[in-house]
Protein backbone atom coordinates (compact mmCIF):
# COMPACT_ATOMS: atom_id res chain seq x y z
CA UNK A 1 0.00 0.00 0.00
CA UNK A 2 1.50 3.31 -1.11
CA UNK A 3 1.67 6.40 1.13
CA UNK A 4 -1.39 8.55 0.53
CA UNK A 5 0.68 11.68 -0.14
CA UNK A 6 2.55 10.28 -3.17
CA UNK A 7 1.62 12.48 -6.12
CA UNK A 8 3.35 14.24 -9.02
CA UNK A 9 5.81 16.80 -7.70
CA UNK A 10 5.82 15.37 -4.15
CA UNK A 11 9.50 14.35 -4.14
CA UNK A 12 12.86 16.01 -4.67
CA UNK A 13 14.88 12.80 -4.27
CA UNK A 14 14.44 9.02 -4.23
CA UNK A 15 16.33 6.86 -1.74
CA UNK A 16 16.70 3.11 -2.25
CA UNK A 17 17.75 0.23 -0.04
CA UNK A 18 19.96 -2.21 -1.97
CA UNK A 19 19.22 -5.77 -0.81
CA UNK A 20 15.94 -7.11 -2.25
CA UNK A 21 15.19 -3.67 -3.68
CA UNK A 22 17.99 -3.15 -6.21
CA UNK A 23 20.04 -6.35 -5.85
CA UNK A 24 18.36 -9.66 -5.14
CA UNK A 25 19.82 -11.62 -2.21
CA UNK A 26 19.25 -15.12 -0.87
CA UNK A 27 20.66 -16.06 2.55
CA UNK A 28 19.89 -19.72 1.86
CA UNK A 29 22.86 -19.71 -0.53
CA UNK A 30 25.12 -18.57 2.32
CA UNK A 31 23.95 -21.39 4.57
CA UNK A 32 24.38 -24.00 1.82
CA UNK A 33 27.94 -22.87 1.07
CA UNK A 34 28.97 -22.83 4.74
CA UNK A 35 27.41 -26.26 5.28
CA UNK A 36 29.33 -27.64 2.31
CA UNK A 37 32.59 -26.23 3.68
CA UNK A 38 31.86 -27.56 7.20
CA UNK A 39 30.47 -30.94 6.15
CA UNK A 40 27.29 -30.48 8.20
CA UNK A 41 23.59 -30.01 7.51
CA UNK A 42 22.33 -26.59 6.37
CA UNK A 43 19.52 -26.89 8.93
CA UNK A 44 22.03 -26.92 11.77
CA UNK A 45 23.59 -23.68 10.60
CA UNK A 46 20.24 -21.99 9.90
CA UNK A 47 19.00 -22.81 13.40
CA UNK A 48 22.08 -21.33 15.09
CA UNK A 49 22.59 -18.19 13.04
CA UNK A 50 21.45 -15.04 14.87
CA UNK A 51 21.67 -11.41 13.74
CA UNK A 52 22.98 -10.21 17.10
CA UNK A 53 25.00 -7.21 18.26
CA UNK A 54 28.21 -8.59 16.76
CA UNK A 55 26.41 -8.85 13.42
CA UNK A 56 25.13 -5.27 13.82
CA UNK A 57 28.58 -4.08 14.83
CA UNK A 58 30.03 -5.62 11.68
CA UNK A 59 27.44 -3.65 9.69
CA UNK A 60 28.42 -0.45 11.53
CA UNK A 61 32.10 -1.08 10.83
CA UNK A 62 33.00 -1.43 14.53
CA UNK A 63 33.61 -5.21 14.40
CA UNK A 64 36.39 -6.46 12.11
CA UNK A 65 35.91 -9.22 9.56
CA UNK A 66 38.23 -11.51 11.55
CA UNK A 67 36.30 -10.89 14.78
CA UNK A 68 32.98 -11.44 13.00
CA UNK A 69 34.08 -14.73 11.47
CA UNK A 70 35.52 -15.87 14.81
CA UNK A 71 32.14 -15.10 16.40
CA UNK A 72 30.35 -17.08 13.68
CA UNK A 73 32.74 -19.99 14.23
CA UNK A 74 31.61 -20.13 17.87
CA UNK A 75 27.95 -19.35 17.23
CA UNK A 76 27.50 -21.91 14.47
CA UNK A 77 29.84 -24.52 15.93
CA UNK A 78 31.70 -25.04 12.66
CA UNK A 79 35.46 -24.99 12.15
CA UNK A 80 35.99 -23.42 8.74
CA UNK A 81 38.55 -20.82 7.66
CA UNK A 82 37.98 -17.09 7.28
CA UNK A 83 38.29 -17.60 3.52
CA UNK A 84 35.55 -20.21 3.57
CA UNK A 85 33.33 -17.95 5.66
CA UNK A 86 33.93 -15.14 3.16
CA UNK A 87 33.14 -17.42 0.23
CA UNK A 88 29.77 -18.32 1.74
CA UNK A 89 29.09 -14.80 2.96
CA UNK A 90 29.30 -13.38 -0.55
CA UNK A 91 27.21 -16.18 -2.06
CA UNK A 92 24.18 -14.18 -0.88
CA UNK A 93 24.06 -12.05 -4.05
CA UNK A 94 21.76 -13.40 -6.77
CA UNK A 95 21.64 -10.61 -9.35
CA UNK A 96 19.67 -7.44 -10.13
CA UNK A 97 16.05 -7.40 -9.03
CA UNK A 98 13.81 -8.11 -12.05
CA UNK A 99 13.12 -4.94 -14.02
CA UNK A 100 15.00 -2.61 -11.65
CA UNK A 101 17.61 -1.44 -14.15
CA UNK A 102 15.02 0.12 -16.45
CA UNK A 103 13.14 1.68 -13.55
CA UNK A 104 16.30 3.28 -12.13
CA UNK A 105 17.28 4.62 -15.53
CA UNK A 106 13.85 6.19 -15.95
CA UNK A 107 13.77 7.58 -12.40
CA UNK A 108 17.26 9.07 -12.75
CA UNK A 109 16.03 11.17 -15.68
CA UNK A 110 13.45 12.76 -13.38
CA UNK A 111 15.00 13.00 -9.91
CA UNK A 112 18.33 12.50 -8.13
CA UNK A 113 18.68 8.94 -6.83
CA UNK A 114 20.49 7.82 -3.68
CA UNK A 115 20.97 4.47 -1.93
CA UNK A 116 21.15 3.57 1.76
CA UNK A 117 22.04 0.03 2.80
CA UNK A 118 22.88 -1.83 5.99
CA UNK A 119 25.93 -3.74 4.81
CA UNK A 120 29.52 -4.66 5.64
CA UNK A 121 32.87 -4.18 3.97
CA UNK A 122 33.23 -7.70 2.49
CA UNK A 123 29.84 -7.34 0.84
CA UNK A 124 30.72 -3.85 -0.43
CA UNK A 125 33.96 -5.15 -1.91
CA UNK A 126 32.02 -7.94 -3.62
CA UNK A 127 28.95 -6.16 -5.01
CA UNK A 128 30.48 -2.79 -5.95
CA UNK A 129 32.40 -3.96 -9.05
CA UNK A 130 29.83 -6.61 -10.04
CA UNK A 131 26.90 -4.19 -10.10
CA UNK A 132 28.77 -1.01 -11.03
CA UNK A 133 26.42 -0.25 -13.93
CA UNK A 134 23.33 -0.60 -11.78
CA UNK A 135 24.83 1.39 -8.91
CA UNK A 136 25.96 4.12 -11.29
CA UNK A 137 22.43 5.53 -11.27
CA UNK A 138 22.93 6.74 -7.69
CA UNK A 139 24.49 10.12 -6.98
CA UNK A 140 25.66 8.85 -3.59
CA UNK A 141 25.46 5.52 -1.79
CA UNK A 142 25.27 5.56 2.01
CA UNK A 143 26.59 2.33 3.54
CA UNK A 144 26.18 1.55 7.23
CA UNK A 145 29.73 0.27 7.71
CA UNK A 146 31.10 3.46 6.13
CA UNK A 147 28.96 6.00 8.01
CA UNK A 148 28.90 4.04 11.29
CA UNK A 149 25.09 4.14 11.45
CA UNK A 150 22.46 1.58 10.46
CA UNK A 151 18.74 1.49 9.84
CA UNK A 152 16.31 1.75 11.57
CA UNK A 153 18.13 4.09 14.00
CA UNK A 154 16.90 7.69 13.77
CA UNK A 155 20.48 9.00 13.65
CA UNK A 156 21.07 7.02 10.45
CA UNK A 157 18.17 8.64 8.63
CA UNK A 158 19.13 12.07 9.96
CA UNK A 159 22.66 11.62 8.61
CA UNK A 160 21.40 10.61 5.17
CA UNK A 161 18.78 13.37 4.95
CA UNK A 162 21.36 16.00 5.89
CA UNK A 163 23.81 14.66 3.30
CA UNK A 164 21.16 14.65 0.56
CA UNK A 165 20.30 18.23 1.45
CA UNK A 166 16.54 18.27 0.95
CA UNK A 167 13.76 18.13 3.59
CA UNK A 168 12.97 14.62 4.83
CA UNK A 169 9.35 14.91 3.71
CA UNK A 170 10.55 15.49 0.13
CA UNK A 171 12.45 12.16 0.03
CA UNK A 172 10.73 8.91 -0.95
CA UNK A 173 12.48 5.89 0.55
CA UNK A 174 12.16 2.30 -0.70
CA UNK A 175 12.98 -0.65 1.58
CA UNK A 176 11.92 -4.29 1.93
CA UNK A 177 11.83 -4.40 5.75
CA UNK A 178 8.88 -3.05 7.73
CA UNK A 179 11.10 -1.92 10.62
CA UNK A 180 13.15 0.25 8.27
CA UNK A 181 10.01 1.72 6.72
CA UNK A 182 8.69 2.58 10.19
CA UNK A 183 12.01 4.16 11.14
CA UNK A 184 12.06 6.23 7.98
CA UNK A 185 8.51 7.47 8.50
CA UNK A 186 9.26 8.34 12.12
CA UNK A 187 12.13 10.47 10.78
CA UNK A 188 9.79 12.29 8.41
CA UNK A 189 10.50 10.53 5.11
CA UNK A 190 7.86 9.19 2.77
CA UNK A 191 8.45 5.44 2.62
CA UNK A 192 7.34 2.55 0.40
CA UNK A 193 7.52 -1.07 1.51
CA UNK A 194 8.95 -3.08 -1.38
CA UNK A 195 7.71 -6.64 -1.84
CA UNK A 196 8.52 -6.69 -5.55
CA UNK A 197 9.78 -4.32 -8.21
CA UNK A 198 6.12 -3.66 -9.00
CA UNK A 199 5.82 -1.63 -5.79
CA UNK A 200 8.57 0.68 -7.02
CA UNK A 201 6.91 1.01 -10.41
CA UNK A 202 3.58 1.87 -8.76
CA UNK A 203 5.20 4.54 -6.58
CA UNK A 204 6.95 6.06 -9.58
CA UNK A 205 3.64 6.17 -11.46
CA UNK A 206 2.03 7.95 -8.50
CA UNK A 207 4.90 10.45 -8.56
CA UNK A 208 4.37 11.04 -12.27
CA UNK A 209 7.71 9.47 -13.28
From TrEMBL:
**What name goes with this protein?**
HAD-IA family hydrolase
Organism (species): Bradyrhizobium aeschynomenes
NCBIfam families named in the record: HAD-SF-IA-v1 (TIGR01549), HAD-SF-IA-v3 (TIGR01509)
Q: Which Pfam families match?
A: Hydrolase
Source domain of life = Bacteria
Q: Is Hydrolase one of the keywords UniProt gives this record?
A: yes
Which InterPro entries did the record assign?
Answer: HAD-like_sf (IPR036412), HAD-SF_hydro_IA (IPR006439), HAD_sf (IPR023214), PGP-like_dom2 (IPR023198)
Q: Which SUPFAM superfamilies match?
A: HAD-like
Amino acid sequence: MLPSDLRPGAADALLFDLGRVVIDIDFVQVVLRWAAHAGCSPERIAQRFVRDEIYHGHERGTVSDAAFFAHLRRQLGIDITDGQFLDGWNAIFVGPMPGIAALLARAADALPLYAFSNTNQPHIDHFSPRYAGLLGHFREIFLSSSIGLRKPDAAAYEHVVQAIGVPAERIVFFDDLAENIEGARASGLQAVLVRSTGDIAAAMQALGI
